[in-house]
Amino acid sequence: MAKLFRAAAAAETVHTNNHFEISGGIEGTKENLRTAINGKTEEFTEYPKFIAEAKAKKNEKALWTFNVANKVKKTYITLYKRS
After folding, report:
1. Suppose 54 and one of 2, 49, 62, 70 were both cysteines; which one would form an S-S bond, judging by CB atoms 3.0 to 4.6 Å apart?
2. What is the mean pLDDT of each run of 10 residues along the chain (83 residues)?
3. Where are the chain's structural domains?
4. Residue 66 burial class via C-beta count within 10 angstroms: exposed 0-12, middle 13-18, buried 19 and up
């Protein structure tokens, strides 16, 4: 099972690198911050759905991890906007 998860993580890394290359890579600071804010905002808006589903299923571990991730993404957005 661990090998399967490592293989999946490696595949995600390949996808990320491909997306990065196609998107034009690193731009200026302002553009990179705007991209980061938009990306994290998009992710942040998905978490309430995950949280609601975890609550409905009474899955405390999932609820915890989604709440933590949601708070972290909110923090990223705040820090990026201050920069």
Report:
1. 62
2. 90 84 79 84 86 96 92 86 85
3. 2-82
4. buried
